[in-house]
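Supplementary Methods. Inverse-folding protocol.

Structures were first reduced to a C-alpha coordinate string of length 269. This string, shown here, constituted the complete conditioning input.
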Protein backbone atom coordinates (compact mmCIF):
# COMPACT_ATOMS: atom_id res chain seq x y z
CA UNK A 1 0.00 0.00 0.00
CA UNK A 2 1.22 3.52 -0.81
CA UNK A 3 2.76 5.03 2.33
CA UNK A 4 1.59 8.48 1.22
CA UNK A 5 -1.96 7.49 2.11
CA UNK A 6 -0.97 7.10 5.77
CA UNK A 7 -2.53 10.06 7.58
CA UNK A 8 -2.46 9.24 11.27
CA UNK A 9 -0.60 6.84 13.57
CA UNK A 10 0.31 6.45 17.22
CA UNK A 11 -0.01 4.30 20.34
CA UNK A 12 -3.19 3.84 22.34
CA UNK A 13 -1.32 4.61 25.55
CA UNK A 14 -0.72 8.13 24.21
CA UNK A 15 -3.91 8.61 22.22
CA UNK A 16 -6.99 6.77 23.59
CA UNK A 17 -8.99 5.09 20.86
CA UNK A 18 -12.14 7.07 21.72
CA UNK A 19 -10.26 10.35 21.14
CA UNK A 20 -8.89 9.13 17.80
CA UNK A 21 -12.37 8.12 16.66
CA UNK A 22 -13.81 11.42 17.86
CA UNK A 23 -11.22 13.21 15.69
CA UNK A 24 -12.03 11.08 12.65
CA UNK A 25 -15.71 11.85 13.14
CA UNK A 26 -15.20 15.60 13.53
CA UNK A 27 -13.00 15.78 10.43
CA UNK A 28 -15.37 13.51 8.44
CA UNK A 29 -12.58 11.17 7.36
CA UNK A 30 -12.99 8.26 4.94
CA UNK A 31 -10.68 5.26 5.25
CA UNK A 32 -9.66 2.47 7.60
CA UNK A 33 -8.23 2.68 11.11
CA UNK A 34 -6.18 -0.39 11.96
CA UNK A 35 -5.42 -1.20 15.59
CA UNK A 36 -2.52 -3.62 15.99
CA UNK A 37 -2.05 -5.96 18.94
CA UNK A 38 1.17 -7.33 20.40
CA UNK A 39 1.91 -9.02 17.08
CA UNK A 40 1.71 -7.14 13.79
CA UNK A 41 -0.44 -9.80 12.11
CA UNK A 42 -3.21 -9.36 14.73
CA UNK A 43 -5.29 -6.28 14.14
CA UNK A 44 -8.78 -4.79 14.17
CA UNK A 45 -10.03 -2.82 11.15
CA UNK A 46 -12.46 0.08 11.60
CA UNK A 47 -13.82 1.57 8.37
CA UNK A 48 -15.10 5.17 8.24
CA UNK A 49 -17.14 7.07 5.66
CA UNK A 50 -17.66 10.80 6.11
CA UNK A 51 -16.63 10.41 9.74
CA UNK A 52 -19.13 7.65 10.56
CA UNK A 53 -18.10 4.12 11.49
CA UNK A 54 -19.43 1.77 8.82
CA UNK A 55 -17.73 -1.55 9.51
CA UNK A 56 -15.53 -3.27 12.13
CA UNK A 57 -13.77 -6.60 11.64
CA UNK A 58 -11.25 -8.80 13.45
CA UNK A 59 -10.34 -12.52 13.35
CA UNK A 60 -13.24 -13.31 11.03
CA UNK A 61 -15.77 -11.48 13.23
CA UNK A 62 -17.50 -8.23 12.32
CA UNK A 63 -20.00 -5.71 13.62
CA UNK A 64 -20.51 -3.28 16.46
CA UNK A 65 -19.45 -5.80 19.13
CA UNK A 66 -15.96 -5.99 17.62
CA UNK A 67 -15.67 -2.22 17.87
CA UNK A 68 -16.99 -2.04 21.45
CA UNK A 69 -14.61 -4.80 22.55
CA UNK A 70 -11.65 -2.96 21.07
CA UNK A 71 -12.64 0.38 22.60
CA UNK A 72 -12.32 -1.14 26.07
CA UNK A 73 -8.60 -1.90 25.59
CA UNK A 74 -5.72 0.50 26.10
CA UNK A 75 -2.76 -1.28 24.51
CA UNK A 76 -1.46 -1.50 20.95
CA UNK A 77 -0.84 1.01 18.20
CA UNK A 78 -2.91 2.33 15.31
CA UNK A 79 -2.60 3.56 11.73
CA UNK A 80 -5.23 5.39 9.69
CA UNK A 81 -5.14 4.88 5.92
CA UNK A 82 -7.35 7.25 3.95
CA UNK A 83 -9.45 6.24 0.98
CA UNK A 84 -9.82 2.52 1.72
CA UNK A 85 -13.43 1.37 1.30
CA UNK A 86 -15.27 -1.02 3.67
CA UNK A 87 -15.88 -4.50 2.24
CA UNK A 88 -19.39 -4.39 3.75
CA UNK A 89 -21.57 -2.26 6.02
CA UNK A 90 -22.04 -3.89 9.42
CA UNK A 91 -22.65 -0.68 11.43
CA UNK A 92 -25.16 2.03 10.61
CA UNK A 93 -25.18 4.55 13.46
CA UNK A 94 -23.84 8.09 13.84
CA UNK A 95 -20.42 8.12 15.48
CA UNK A 96 -21.63 10.10 18.53
CA UNK A 97 -24.32 7.49 19.21
CA UNK A 98 -21.76 4.71 18.87
CA UNK A 99 -19.40 6.40 21.35
CA UNK A 100 -22.18 6.96 23.90
CA UNK A 101 -23.28 3.33 23.71
CA UNK A 102 -19.65 2.26 24.02
CA UNK A 103 -19.44 3.73 27.54
CA UNK A 104 -22.31 1.53 28.74
CA UNK A 105 -20.70 -1.45 27.03
CA UNK A 106 -17.38 -0.70 28.74
CA UNK A 107 -19.00 -0.51 32.19
CA UNK A 108 -20.77 -3.84 31.71
CA UNK A 109 -17.60 -5.43 30.35
CA UNK A 110 -15.61 -4.36 33.42
CA UNK A 111 -18.33 -5.86 35.62
CA UNK A 112 -18.02 -9.30 34.02
CA UNK A 113 -14.22 -9.06 33.96
CA UNK A 114 -14.34 -8.64 37.75
CA UNK A 115 -16.57 -11.70 38.14
CA UNK A 116 -14.65 -14.11 35.91
CA UNK A 117 -11.31 -15.76 36.71
CA UNK A 118 -8.16 -14.21 35.16
CA UNK A 119 -7.96 -14.10 31.35
CA UNK A 120 -5.26 -16.79 31.17
CA UNK A 121 -7.53 -19.31 32.92
CA UNK A 122 -8.30 -22.47 30.94
CA UNK A 123 -11.94 -23.60 31.05
CA UNK A 124 -13.36 -27.14 31.06
CA UNK A 125 -16.72 -28.75 30.37
CA UNK A 126 -18.21 -30.01 33.64
CA UNK A 127 -19.20 -33.69 33.46
CA UNK A 128 -21.61 -33.41 36.43
CA UNK A 129 -24.14 -30.61 35.75
CA UNK A 130 -26.74 -30.12 38.46
CA UNK A 131 -29.66 -30.10 36.02
CA UNK A 132 -30.39 -30.82 32.37
CA UNK A 133 -29.45 -27.50 30.76
CA UNK A 134 -31.62 -25.37 28.48
CA UNK A 135 -29.25 -23.65 26.06
CA UNK A 136 -29.77 -20.94 23.47
CA UNK A 137 -27.65 -20.43 20.35
CA UNK A 138 -25.18 -18.10 22.12
CA UNK A 139 -24.73 -20.68 24.91
CA UNK A 140 -24.02 -23.44 22.40
CA UNK A 141 -21.61 -21.30 20.40
CA UNK A 142 -19.49 -20.43 23.42
CA UNK A 143 -19.83 -23.85 25.04
CA UNK A 144 -18.35 -25.34 21.86
CA UNK A 145 -15.24 -23.17 22.41
CA UNK A 146 -14.56 -24.71 25.83
CA UNK A 147 -12.20 -27.63 25.25
CA UNK A 148 -9.79 -27.75 28.19
CA UNK A 149 -7.14 -25.86 26.22
CA UNK A 150 -8.58 -22.44 25.37
CA UNK A 151 -8.25 -19.61 27.86
CA UNK A 152 -10.95 -17.05 28.61
CA UNK A 153 -9.01 -14.50 26.56
CA UNK A 154 -8.81 -16.81 23.54
CA UNK A 155 -12.52 -17.62 23.68
CA UNK A 156 -13.34 -13.89 23.77
CA UNK A 157 -11.09 -13.31 20.75
CA UNK A 158 -12.76 -16.07 18.74
CA UNK A 159 -16.27 -14.79 19.55
CA UNK A 160 -15.42 -11.18 18.72
CA UNK A 161 -17.99 -9.48 20.96
CA UNK A 162 -16.19 -9.59 24.31
CA UNK A 163 -19.20 -8.59 26.41
CA UNK A 164 -21.35 -11.34 24.94
CA UNK A 165 -18.56 -13.87 25.46
CA UNK A 166 -17.88 -12.88 29.07
CA UNK A 167 -21.53 -12.63 30.10
CA UNK A 168 -22.32 -16.06 28.64
CA UNK A 169 -19.18 -17.59 30.17
CA UNK A 170 -20.19 -16.25 33.59
CA UNK A 171 -23.71 -17.67 33.16
CA UNK A 172 -22.32 -21.08 32.14
CA UNK A 173 -19.96 -21.03 35.14
CA UNK A 174 -22.80 -20.18 37.53
CA UNK A 175 -24.96 -22.94 36.07
CA UNK A 176 -22.19 -25.48 36.59
CA UNK A 177 -21.84 -26.33 32.90
CA UNK A 178 -18.21 -25.22 32.67
CA UNK A 179 -15.47 -24.81 35.23
CA UNK A 180 -12.02 -23.35 35.73
CA UNK A 181 -11.16 -26.55 37.60
CA UNK A 182 -10.19 -29.73 35.77
CA UNK A 183 -12.95 -32.37 36.05
CA UNK A 184 -10.52 -34.77 37.71
CA UNK A 185 -9.52 -32.26 40.39
CA UNK A 186 -9.25 -33.70 43.89
CA UNK A 187 -9.20 -32.06 47.32
CA UNK A 188 -5.57 -31.02 46.99
CA UNK A 189 -6.18 -28.40 44.30
CA UNK A 190 -9.10 -26.60 45.95
CA UNK A 191 -8.45 -23.17 47.47
CA UNK A 192 -10.52 -22.36 50.59
CA UNK A 193 -11.45 -18.72 51.17
CA UNK A 194 -11.89 -17.16 54.63
CA UNK A 195 -15.38 -15.85 55.46
CA UNK A 196 -15.62 -12.46 57.13
CA UNK A 197 -18.02 -11.90 60.07
CA UNK A 198 -20.17 -9.70 57.80
CA UNK A 199 -20.88 -12.70 55.56
CA UNK A 200 -22.11 -14.89 58.43
CA UNK A 201 -25.72 -14.62 59.64
CA UNK A 202 -25.34 -16.95 62.63
CA UNK A 203 -23.00 -17.68 65.53
CA UNK A 204 -19.93 -19.69 64.63
CA UNK A 205 -18.52 -22.25 67.06
CA UNK A 206 -14.77 -21.98 67.56
CA UNK A 207 -12.78 -25.03 66.41
CA UNK A 208 -12.03 -27.48 69.22
CA UNK A 209 -8.68 -28.75 67.96
CA UNK A 210 -5.41 -26.83 67.87
CA UNK A 211 -4.64 -28.12 64.38
CA UNK A 212 -8.00 -26.80 63.10
CA UNK A 213 -7.23 -23.36 64.54
CA UNK A 214 -3.79 -23.45 62.94
CA UNK A 215 -5.38 -24.38 59.62
CA UNK A 216 -7.92 -21.58 59.91
CA UNK A 217 -5.17 -19.03 60.52
CA UNK A 218 -3.23 -20.34 57.51
CA UNK A 219 -6.16 -20.00 55.08
CA UNK A 220 -5.59 -16.81 53.08
CA UNK A 221 -7.67 -17.32 49.94
CA UNK A 222 -4.62 -18.05 47.78
CA UNK A 223 -3.17 -21.28 49.16
CA UNK A 224 -4.41 -24.69 48.03
CA UNK A 225 -5.34 -27.48 50.42
CA UNK A 226 -2.22 -29.38 49.32
CA UNK A 227 0.01 -26.42 50.20
CA UNK A 228 -1.83 -25.85 53.48
CA UNK A 229 -1.29 -29.48 54.47
CA UNK A 230 2.46 -29.11 53.94
CA UNK A 231 2.51 -25.81 55.79
CA UNK A 232 0.94 -27.06 59.01
CA UNK A 233 2.19 -30.66 58.62
CA UNK A 234 -0.97 -32.72 59.08
CA UNK A 235 -2.26 -35.78 57.24
CA UNK A 236 -4.57 -35.69 54.25
CA UNK A 237 -7.44 -37.26 56.21
CA UNK A 238 -7.04 -34.71 59.00
CA UNK A 239 -7.05 -31.70 56.72
CA UNK A 240 -10.10 -32.96 54.79
CA UNK A 241 -11.92 -33.46 58.10
CA UNK A 242 -11.00 -29.95 59.21
CA UNK A 243 -11.92 -28.36 55.87
CA UNK A 244 -15.36 -29.97 56.05
CA UNK A 245 -15.82 -28.73 59.62
CA UNK A 246 -14.74 -25.16 58.79
CA UNK A 247 -17.07 -25.12 55.79
CA UNK A 248 -20.06 -26.46 57.74
CA UNK A 249 -19.49 -23.94 60.56
CA UNK A 250 -19.16 -20.99 58.13
CA UNK A 251 -15.49 -20.20 58.70
CA UNK A 252 -14.54 -20.81 55.08
CA UNK A 253 -16.12 -20.87 51.63
CA UNK A 254 -15.06 -21.60 48.05
CA UNK A 255 -15.45 -19.78 44.75
CA UNK A 256 -18.72 -20.40 42.88
CA UNK A 257 -17.06 -22.98 40.64
CA UNK A 258 -14.86 -24.67 43.23
CA UNK A 259 -17.78 -25.01 45.65
CA UNK A 260 -19.48 -27.40 43.24
CA UNK A 261 -16.35 -29.55 43.13
CA UNK A 262 -16.02 -29.38 46.92
CA UNK A 263 -19.63 -30.44 47.52
CA UNK A 264 -19.30 -33.31 45.06
CA UNK A 265 -16.15 -34.56 46.79
CA UNK A 266 -17.73 -33.99 50.20
CA UNK A 267 -20.72 -36.14 49.28
CA UNK A 268 -18.50 -38.88 47.93
CA UNK A 269 -16.61 -39.31 51.21
Amino acid sequence: MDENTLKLSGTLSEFPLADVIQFLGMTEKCGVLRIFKEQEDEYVSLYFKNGNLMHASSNGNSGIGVFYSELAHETGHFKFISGEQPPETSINKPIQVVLLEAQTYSDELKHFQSLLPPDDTVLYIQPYPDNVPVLNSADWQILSMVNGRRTIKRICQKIGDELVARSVLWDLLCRGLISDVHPDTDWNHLIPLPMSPDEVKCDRPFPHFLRTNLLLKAIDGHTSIKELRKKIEISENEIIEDIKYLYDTHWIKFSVVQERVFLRLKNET
